[in-house]
Amino acid sequence: MFMISRRPAATLADVARDAGVSAATVDRVINGRAGVKARTREHVLGVARHLGYVSDEGPTAGREGAARLPLDFVLPSGSNSFIANLADALAATRRPEAEVRVHQMEGFDPQALSAHLEGLAETSRGVGLVGLDHPAVREAVRMLEAAGVPVVTLVSDISHAPRAGYVGIDNRAAGRLAGYLLGRLHGQRPARIALFAGSFAYRGHEEREMGFRHILAEEFPDFEIVARAESRDDWERSYAEATRILKETPDLAGIYNIGAGNRGIARALEEAGRARSVLFVGHEVTAFSRRFLLSGTMDVAIDQNPRVEAREAVERLILAAGGQRQFASFLVRMQAVFKENIPEG
Is residue 81 in some structural domain? Predict the structure, then answer.
């Protein structure tokens, strides 16, 4: 990795433009990563030196006093196993040019979240966020961007706010997939369905519900959603809601859980003796959902890889901090996981 000049004139985007390559290619050259032809590498370095973006002082990785970009990721706290896995993946990310810092706080208090985001404006060079789609949060994102701190949203996007990009699955497509699988597993017979979400204030959860409802209307018009509950990603709350719904709806045919709280729903199904008669589709392969898939309590988990999400979010914040302020959303691949294809680890 080459020493970045203190001269303020040039940015990574300037180097990419003058060299006629992508910002990602410049990033790989500057940081000494593979995947770039020798001729291209020399050309990019020549342009970078000419613009004063790098000097000839050699690699800085591991050099005492070398500046590292402080990148902050703000995630909701609580018992959400997927978010815990994402936090671990972010904390384990090692990049010589960046210092990754993970913050976890109450995820359903938009005022506290917005205040925390505003407090990062003076100390951060990039912020990754899993947050509510709320006016206070949107305003905090606008403030960060205006202060020159790029924001990347993860897992769930935020509407009508400037940000460097989004990293996560296509949540509307995920909801459609859930509805399609539930419908195909049940068949064309009429069915009564319950819908759970962590919070419909998350844009990702709202999009999953939208996709789910649309596919049912298109392909399975005899399905009826008879219950809609918010668990706030609390498994005990999802347990209480699922227990109530199962008692009130003896002919319930299926449950779609948009967010966290799978273990609460699974416990309610098992205690009611209906684990094999009620179809259960949820999200994410965790230590808990893995067990429920194996036991047959859960039929399908629509999974996304938190390690890929962490890696791509860090990569894009580094690029944004270096001058590439906008990129196309990076859609993480999702897969439907059944008992027979549970991935390792």
Answer: yes
